[in-house]
Amino acid sequence: MSATLTSPEVVAFDGVLPLTETQRDIQRLARDFAAEHVAPFAAEWDRDQRFEPSLVPRMGEAGFLGMLLPEAYDGLALDTSSYLLALEEIAAADASTAVMMSVHNSLPTQMLLRYASDALKDRYLAPMARGERLGGFALSEPDAGSDAASLRAQAVRDGDHWVLNGTKSWVTHGTYPDLVLLATARTDAPDARRGSKGISTFVVTPDMPGFRVGKKENKMGLRASPTVQVVFEDLRVPAENLVGEEGQGFVYAMQSLDHGRLGIAAQALGIARAALSAARDYADQRKQFGQPIRNFQAIQFKLADMASRIASGRALLHQTAAAKDRGERVTAYSSMCKLLASETAMFVADEAVQIFGGYGYVKEYPVERYLRDAKVTEIYEGTSEIQRVVIARELYA
Ligand code: CAA
Q1: Ligand 1 centre from 254 Cα, in Å?
Q2: Gap between the Cα atoms of 209 and 237, Å rounded
Q3: Structure pTM?
Q4: Which residue minimizes the CA distance to atom 47 of ligand 1?
Q5: Residue 239 Cα, ligand 1 centroid: separation in angstroms?
Q6: Which residues of 27-54 are buried (b: 16+ CB within 10 A; e: fewer)?
Q7: In the beta sheet, which residues pair with residue 134?
Q8: 2 in helix, strand or coil?
């Protein structure tokens, strides 16, 4: 066997999606971009834990960092399905690049667009769409993960500033110098806590005195995406950087995660699709017992199950995206999309490793990376258990 499968041709298998001409064009654009600028380097970035900073302006120039923003902010003003199709293409090449695209497009830019003052939108959105600045989101803390409302970072008003203290965890690309971080902190008083209603959101940037990058995580997967703690030490934030209304930060976060979880679902499907492509090609080339292993039903059944799960996860995702664009509330469906797609990614990547056998267990081939990358999709932006909580609650709403 030769190690030729580092950048497999994709098995798209998306024929049932009712895609428009524009959506197909965006999908093709993203596929071509990924083939040229992302896929050839993904294994190396993963090995070296390297976040390639030139990718950000390059993706901005190509339009991938302002996909959902209005043209007035230099965005492409696309529908959600177009964005998710592009994201899946990028994820099929490299899940680390995809998480950058997903976090940026789904969380900070959407939060600013929906809730921030015109002054904040004018200052940040166009540079974010152009890739001159990269968005981040800071909700979790060392002791506040699934129970996000228990966060403890504190903001205290001091004249025309807020002073922030606390530690935020799992901040995607928190090391980026031109970061625009949408950070949550408590604005209720320690002796009069208001639960989820005591949380507000601020725009924080690394040039503000008191902003410090803390521990960098050494992760199992998504190794080309830097994940760090960010520490606020008497960080002075101008009062006008409060996003929307004081005390509404938790609701903004939850609403944005409804959107973010669709992005993670697309990322998971991209990983799964890459794993299926690699396994399909390998099963065609690998000979045992005198014939290609694709001739064996044991392998055919695996490939069929992998393809079926991807196609069904994708169908729900794009139905949900369309409902969202019609203005419908999609909280439960968004959780279902993420739950199904992330479990699909784990299932498909695991089966791909199994089809590769020993070759799947070594770094010569990409499938072990797909398995490592897939795992986090069951964890971040709400664990699979939290998605089930959200879905079950909605059954009784
Ligand atoms: N849309 C709008 N409002 C919402 C909402 C939604 N989807 N979900 C909750 N709310 C509102 C509720 O209506 C409620 O408002 P009222 O009090 O006015 O009724 C308020 O928010 C509080 O809601 P809950 O009582 O349901 O809050 P809770 O404390 O029980 O928590 C939870 C609910 C679903 C468990 C939530 O804490 C949660 O989603 N946890 C997971 C957190 C998470 O996903 N973190 C990921 C961080 S980002 C990341 O992973 C890194 C990265 O960027 C890649």
Answers
A1: 4
A2: 9
A3: 0.96
A4: 381
A5: 25
A6: bebbbebbbebbbebbbebbeebebbee
A7: 179
A8: coil
